[in-house]
Design a protein that fits this description.
Elements (H helix, E strand, L loop, with lengths): L1 H26 L8 E6 L2 E2 H12 L2 E3 L9 E2 L2 E6 H9 L4 E7 L2 E6 L32 E2 L7 E2 L7 E5 H7 L4 H4 L6 E3 L3 H7 L3 E3 L14 E3 L2 E2 L15 E8 L3 H4 L6 E7 L7 E9 L3 E11 L6 E13 L6 E16 L2 E15 L33 E16 L4 E24 L5 E28 L2 E29 L13 E23 L2 E18 L4 E18 L5 E12 L14 E12 L5 E19 L7 E21 L2 E16 L3 E3 L5 E3 L11 E10 L8 E10 L2 E2 L7 E2 L2 E11 L10 E8 L7 E4 L5 E3 L4 E9 L1
Parallel strand pairs: 3-7, 13-16
Antiparallel strand pairs: 1-5, 2-4, 6-7, 8-9, 10-15, 11-12, 13-14, 15-16, 17-18, 17-44, 18-19, 19-20, 20-21, 21-22, 22-23, 23-24, 24-25, 25-26, 26-27, 27-28, 28-29, 29-30, 30-31, 31-32, 32-33, 33-36, 34-35, 36-37, 37-40, 38-39, 40-41, 41-44, 42-43
């Protein structure tokens, strides 16, 4: 039952967090000194400066008031860790400190004349994080995805989730759906092992990722939209990204056409000043063999030129028969900094996927979700044909991220990327299970597709004050051109016995059914203002978009042109209390062009979306953690549906609603202990529609008032990772996680349900540097997902279109880092 599995998830969450927390507290004290704070201590007497420091950080400072009488402190100011602020306050005073408790330090007089002491070196670790850089641990504090400016998450009035590089490595993610599997508001991996081929299926707040080949309108890299059909734009290797960020809710004000559920933005690894690198090898079940390589550093002593080279390659089978996959990818990067105010980073990426498998390997409903008199269908069933299968995809990208600060007020940025994709695909897919419930009809589908995608974003940022109000103003102009060419073929194939399949039964009956060229253009002008008056923060933004499309049908020699324009806006208010709580409220809009015409020959209007969101963010002072609780209501209009009078035509009467509650928490509870927790309640409904859908009973059902297929009402996850810091087990890391996805409807008619499922993951890691300094940098890791090897259906998107989820996966890693 669904409630049983949900209770199991909550119980396992408590047990995991409680057990590992006990281990952590037994091994070490809380990292009070490493916590960041906004410090404001003016030059004054040392005694009063220490009292202010204690009040602003929660640190207990033990000192003899008589000994420090008459001594002054230079104070401290800025976003500093507790330790950095303490060192700044004590600099030049003749006093140092020692840890004397879990939350206390004691001052000691340094021998010698204090006037001869050099100032202590202050390392401001809190300021090292930027919106585009790495994060130490699981808890990010800065992001640009929600504002296109380097803004603290605690000051952004919209829900944003960040999956850091450290979290991805701890879970050893191999595709984007795995990277986002522990994020609230998202449903990923709904197409099982098939989704990792054509595109990772990621639905945000009930929208996006609901096609057969993954999303094509909610993916971004470095803030630039990935355009394409969904076949060629997805499935980039997560090893190339420093962080993955999810902006939840409509995002058109900053990004133009997008789904109302939100976007996820992949932030590329960038060159570093300090020399660093890693090289490793991975092996796992299903004959996985993978190599990884990542090296970065400065090319000259002045660090004017920085470089980075990241590469990976792997070969593996899957649990599905006749499904061998190979990937080779490399991403070079170069940064030029002619002065401290200017930087240009060149980013390139080359990825080749050569798969003997298909993203269309869906299975019958009876035999997976519902009973079949002849038993359950095997999770290894391949519905294709070895004589007609190919997935050969090449993806190349080159671009740059340029920034120049004229002064403390004005900064300009220009981001550009050209992306080329080529795909040669052939596959046989299942159409319907016959009445005998043994044989299934099949079709063959093939395509050759090329796309050229140019994306440019120009930004002017101005920071200034008017009296007590701080302003961050952003003005931008962005554009995108997509030139896409496709040739497709379709044909009837022989039936398949789903219990005794013959995958070598050649039947070449395919014929061309589409040959077309499409040229799409978008131009957007946007502006945003962030007001900060003490702790009150207001964010406003507006955008005007112009889009045009030209579709040439080479089979009929006809050309169709369409133009659209739309204005979208958003507003948000947030109050950042000194206690760490930040309640907020926001409104935002989205739009997407719809290609086609109605029964009168009039072009379809763009779909529109609106969201109201209220929530509270909490960043506890003194603790490296971040919690977000949000509630939202989204409406999407102008959805194209079948005409109720003439089903062969389409009309724009559709409206879809999505509302829910999300809770997400990330924390480092003690030295070496990281945890993430997420829970989502989601209520989706087809509010208006002229469509009918055939149910599992064979009857047609009106879908109005029904719940969207493949979207669960409840979902949750918890992951805990602990690394021993000292003692006999120093260097040993243990991780454990649980993922719960509630039951879903298998079709829009809501004629049958897909059961819920609960999966468990685990990880073991060891740093050999704890054994001997000569082994420093050598690391071994073992990851297992779905460790119980549960056989489950990840989702269904219609009758006889069901996907088994991935079974047990075990991957071992050995790498050397420096």
């Amino acid at each position: 039952m669904p409630r049983k599995n949900l209770r199991a998830l909550l119980l396992s969450s408590c047990l995991l967090i409680g057990t590992v927390a006990d281990m952590a507290w037994a091994q070490s004290t809380p990292p009070v000194l490493s916590q960041p704070h906004a410090i404001d201590i003016a030059p004054q007497a040392l005694a009063s400066a220490l009292n202010q420091l204690a009040a602003q950080t929660g640190l207990q400072i033990v000192f003899d008031a008589a000994k420090i009488s008459g001594i002054n402190s230079a104070g401290a100011n800025g976003m500093l860790t507790t330790e950095a602020a303490l060192q700044a306050v004590l600099a030049g005073t003749g006093f140092n400190y020692r840890i004397s408790g879990t939350n206390a330090v004691t001052l000691d007089l340094v021998s010698g004349d204090s006037t001869d002491l050099a100032p202590l070196s202050v390392t401001d670790t809190a300021e090292t994080e930027t919106a585009w850089g790495p994060v130490d641990g699981y808890v990010a504090t800065q992001s640009a995805t929600g504002t296109k400016t380097d803004t603290p998450l605690i000051e952004t009035p919209q829900s944003i989730s960040v999956v850091t590089r450290d979290e991805m490595e701890a879970r050893n993610v191999t595709d984007m759906s795995q990277a986002l599997a522990y994020t609230s508001g998202l449903i990923s991996g709904g197409h099982g092992t098939s989704g990792a081929i054509g595109g990772d299926t990621v639905a945000i707040r009930g929208f996006g990722g609901d096609g057969t080949t993954g999303p094509s309108s909610n993916e971004y890299i470095d803030g630039l939209k990935l355009a394409g059909t969904g076949y060629v734009s997805s499935a980039f290797d997560p090893y190339f990204f420093e962080r993955v960020e999810v902006l939840k809710g409509p995002a058109s004000v900053l990004y133009g056409q997008s789904t109302p559920g939100g976007i996820f933005n992949m932030v590329s690894k960038r060159p570093t000043e300090d020399f660093q690198g890693e090289i490793g090898f991975q092996a796992g079940n299903n004959d996985l063999f993978q190599g990884i390589f990542d090296i970065s550093g400065a090319m000259d002593e002045d660090k004017e030129f920085l470089y980075r080279l990241t590469a990976t390659g792997w070969d593996n089978d899957t649990e599905v028969d006749f499904s061998d996959r190979r990937r080779y990818a490399v991403a070079p990067a170069l940064t030029w900094r002619p002065n401290e105010d200017t930087s240009i980073t060149l980013l390139a990426r080359m990825q080749k996927d050569d798969f003997d498998s298909s993203p269309l390997n869906w299975l019958p409903t009876r035999g997976t979700v519902l009973g079949n008199p002849y038993g359950d269908i095997s999770s290894s069933l391949y519905t294709g044909d070895t004589n007609y299968q190919e997935w050969d995809r090449d993806s190349y990208a080159i671009g740059y991220l340029a920034e120049h600060a004229f002064d403390d007020t004005f900064t300009v940025r220009q981001n550009f990327r050209y992306n080329y994709n080529r795909l040669d695909f052939k596959g046989v897919y299942l159409q319907n299970l016959r009445a005998d419930q043994i044989n299934a009809s099949r079709y063959a589908f093939g395509m050759i597709e090329h796309s050229n995608d140019w994306t440019l974003d120009n930004q002017l940022e101005a920071k200034f004050d008017t009296g007590p109000v701080e302003h961050t103003f952003l003005l931008g102009v962005d554009g995108q051109i997509l030139d896409n060419d496709t040739k497709r073929e379709l044909g009837l194939w022989t039936d398949l016995d789903v219990f005794d399949p013959d995958n070598d039964n050649f039947a070449n009956t395919v014929a061309p059914f589409r040959s077309q060229a499409q040229l799409s253009k978008q131009l957007g002008l946007y502006a945003q203002e962030q007001f900060k008056w003490d702790d009150l923060i207001l964010t406003f933004g507006g955008r005007q978009d112009w889009t045009s499309g030209e579709l040439t049908n080479r089979m009929t020699d006809e050309t169709t042109k369409q133009t659209d324009d739309a204005f979208t806006w958003r507003a948000g208010v947030l109050y950042a209390f000194e206690s760490g709580f930040s309640p907020y409220f926001s409104y935002s809009e989205s739009f997407e062009p719809e290609i086609g015409t109605d029964e009168d020959g009039k072009p379809f209007k763009p779909t529109t979306g609106q969201q109201f969101e209220v929530g509270i963010k909490y960043q506890p002072p003194g603790y490296d953690s971040f919690i977000t609780l949000s509630a939202f209501d989204i409406k999407r209009q102008n959805v194209v549906t079948a005409d109720p009078v003439n089903p062969s035509l389409s009309t724009q009467t559709g409206e879809i609603g999505s509302r829910g509650i999300e809770l997400e928490a990330k924390a480092s509870l003690a030295d070496g202990l990281d945890a993430t927790f997420a829970y989502t309640y989601l209520d989706t409904e087809i509010l208006k529609s002229g469509d009918t859908a055939t149910g599992i009973d064979g009857d047609d059902h009106n879908v109005e008032g029904k719940q969207k297929a493949a979207i669960p009402t409840h979902a949750g996850s918890v992951w805990v990772n602990y690394t021993f810091q000292e003692g006999d087990f120093a260097g040993l890391g243990l991780g454990a996680g649980a993922r719960y996805v509630g039951e879903t409807y298998g079709d829009d008619a809501n004629s049958y349900k897909v059961p819920d499922y609960l999966l468990f993951d685990a990880a073991v890691r060891y740093d050999f540097g704890e054994l001997s300094p000569s082994l420093d940098g050598w690391i071994a890791q073992l990851n297992a997902s779905n460790i119980a090897d549960n056989k489950y259906v990840a989702s269904c998107i219609g009758i006889d279109r069901c996907f088994y989820g991935a079974g047990r996966t075990i991957i071992g890693t050995v790498k050397y880092t420096w």
